[in-house]
Design brief:
There is one protein chain. By secondary structure, the chain is mostly beta strands. It contains no helices and 23 strands. The strands form seven sheets. The protein has a four-stranded antiparallel β-sheet, with no helix packed on it. It has a four-stranded antiparallel β-sheet with strand order 5-6-7-8, with no helix packed on it. The N terminus is likely disordered. The structure holds calcium ion (4 copies).
């Protein structure tokens, strides 16, 4: 399960096509090279000299070697991979965190990083050379325990679902540029809950599952019904100055089985409202 504790990741750090393991343990991060048969060699210390509770992997400097990111109560560090299971000296790239996710959030082909800290999450857009742009902070105002990064609304952009320590889940729709819409919160949980995800009812949309501890000892499903996409056309296109044009917006469910969207479409030029349609 994802969470605030140790998280083991699998990646091929020495490029032998066999999955290896990175394990934060006892304040160290160890690498266990895989033998390809389910067994692993003895742990090798990565040389991270500070405590880490959560690790993530990816090729952040685009040299074809898998790198390691480790976060904990002090800072977040990048350890550039040497391609043989060893790593270069840790470089501090961000503040403390309780969970990490690596993904290309702004679709520029360079791996970016999400750091879940207690009170918010930070986006660090990758420069593709192992350095990152200054962090942008989202989701302030509550205390988080877990996070899921998935495309929940089916628009091709990754979204964040983050659970607070009361067990309620906030979903932040990704804009595709590394920033996120304001939260939509689902009141489902109880303190100590855990968050998982999957397509529970097989309608093609990723749902959330919250497992609640005693006295509930149950699962709460948050079924995903939010998939909507909007396509815009204008006619004639192209048009000349002062020529009347007809704007057409087609709103459809972008996630199979999520129903027929209802509501009002508003056409705006800047802040000027050109018209609305129901
Ligand atoms: Ca390997
Ligand atoms: Ca690398
Ligand atoms: Ca990127
Ligand atoms: Ca999305």
């Amino acid at each position: 399960m994802p969470g605030g504790g140790s998280e083991v990741i699998l990646a091929d750090f020495n490029k032998d096509q066999k999955l290896d393991m990175a394990v934060p343990t006892g304040g160290l991060v160890n690498i266990l090279l895989g033998n390809g048969d389910g067994s692993f060699q003895s742990p090798m210390n990565t040389g991270l000299g500070t405590s880490a509770t959560y690790v993530e992997s990816g090729d952040f400097n685009m040299d074809g070697r898998v790198d390691l990111i480790a976060t904990g109560s002090s800072n977040t560090y990048l350890l550039a991979g040497n391609g043989n299971g060893t790593f270069q000296s840790p470089k501090s790239i961000g503040g403390p965190g309780i969970a990490l996710r690596a993904a290309d959030l702004n679709n520029d082909g360079k791996l970016d990083l999400l750091i879940l800290s207690g009170q918010s999450f930070q986006v660090l857009l990758g420069n593709g050379d192992g350095t990152f742009q200054p962090p942008k902070t989202f989701g302030q105002g509550t205390t988080y325990s877990e996070m899921v990064l998935k495309d929940f609304n089916g628009d091709g952009k990754l979204d964040v679902a983050a659970m607070n320590n009361g067990g309620n889940v906030s979903v932040f729709a990704g804009k595709g540029d590394g920033s996120f819409e304001p939260r939509v919160t689902y009141i489902v949980g109880a303190p100590g809950s855990h968050l998982a995800n999957g397509d529970v009812n097989n309608d093609g949309a990723v749902d959330l599952v919250v497992s609640r501890p005693a006295p509930y000892s149950d699962l709460v499903l948050v079924l995903n019904r939010r998939g909507i996409s909007t396509a815009m056309t204008s006619s004639p296109n192209p048009s000349t100055a002062n020529q009347p044009v007809t704007l057409t917006a087609t709103v459809s469910a972008s996630v199979r089985g999520s129903g027929t969207p209802t509501g009002t479409v508003m056409f705006q030029e800047g802040t000027t409202v050109l018209g609305t349609a129901a």
